Recover the amino acids of this structure.
């Protein structure tokens, strides 16, 4: 089964660091599918938000962490993959059905 753009981009990560990146550098942070790569993410962002020009994409794989439960039982919690997308102009281009700028504010 072929994955679509909606499948590759899971959600927008909104943290204090991602808000700071959006305001200062015009970068948006997404949680993405584990099999996604830079070219797929660039194409998906440009397809989902029409008129958006992606300048650069950086990928980060966040490893899972161990959690200790009762009686010393250790469980590995799953990690995830995120993409830091640098767009040319976040103010004018990211208006649409889902405005990224409004979500990050």
């Amino acid at each position: 089964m072929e994955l679509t753009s909606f499948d590759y981009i899971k959600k927008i990560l909104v943290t204090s660091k991602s808000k700071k990146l959006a305001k200062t550098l015009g970068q948006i942070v997404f949680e993405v599918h584990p099999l996604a790569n830079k070219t797929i993410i660039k194409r998906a962002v440009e397809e989902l938000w029409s008129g958006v020009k992606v300048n650069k994409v950086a990928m980060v794989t966040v490893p899972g962490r161990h959690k200790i439960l009762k009686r010393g039982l250790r469980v590995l919690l799953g990690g995830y993959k995120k993409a830091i997308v640098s767009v040319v102009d976040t103010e004018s281009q990211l208006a649409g059905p889902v405005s990224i700028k409004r979500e990050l504010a």
Observations:
- DSSP finds five helices and six strands in the chain.
- The chain has one domain: 5-104.
